[in-house]
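For reproducibility, we list the full input for the fe (ii) ion complex.
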Amino acid sequence: MNKDNLDIKDLPVFPQVAVKILQIQEDNIDISFKELESIILLDPALTAKILKVANSALYARQREITNLQQALTLLGFKMVKSLVLLVSASNIYSKNVKSQQQTTAATVTKTSTAMIWRHSVVTAFISKYVATRIKNDEKKEDVFVAGLLHDIGRLIMMISFKDKYEQYIAYLNQMSYKDIREIEEKIFEINHQEVGRIVLEKWNFPNELIDAVAQHHVVQVDSKYKTTVQIVGVANLFAKIIENENLSENDRELLATFSKALNITKEDYDYLTGEIVNALQNDELYKMSTSLIG
Ligand SMILES: [Fe+2]
Ligand SMILES: [Fe+2]
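The corresponding predicted structure, in tokenized form, follows.
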């Protein structure tokens, strides 16, 4: 099968606003600010949601943020950019939850959509914490967005390959497997990394995000953005550990390789799979993010 010509049915549209924002050059921050503001303002629903999310991100503030300019000044360009992506991605997940009919398959996919969203949010936040922990702070917003989208292929597969999805879930629940991609390839003849890459390319996303989505399960990362890919890859595993999921053989290999490459210490590991849960539960933006779909 030529995977690049794969017919993905009912491919959701990623909002143009978010795509445009991803393409803003950040070398002149004054111009970028204005550009970002004017793009977001084109979409009143998005603007409203951004303000709501921005207020929860700055929960300690006394005064409410009432306009976009304030949000930009207080939160900064990268943070607002991440919020736009967060809201846009949640809209795609929400649409899938809402469009389901009341059938068994629908219940399965509805639960799965919510689960994948939750897992994606956890991975996004852990990615950000990993960047901070390994003193790569300037990457924290980029890896947040990459973490949020890393399993977008799974959502697309659920939407596009509906007829085989129940069979896939049954397999997942029964089998012990080396890697989730094995089962996907067996049932759908393609895995979620490849689907994610194809879709992000169609949406004209930047290469850094495409690489993170396309390689987060690959031990030998081949990318200009290796660190981003590895941060998201390791955050995905920490998310799994927190969610009490079993790690596959491939996961263990990834964990060892990425932790070493990123200089993640034993102390970091303990924090990122333990104490971080409390930090997340007290993080207003995290709580807001998990409740964005449903
Ligand atoms: Fe994945
Ligand atoms: Fe994942």
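Residues 104-133 form the longest helix (30 residues). Residues 119, 123, 150-151, 236 surround fe (ii) ion (ligand 2) (CB under 6 Å). Both points were considered when choosing residues for closer inspection.
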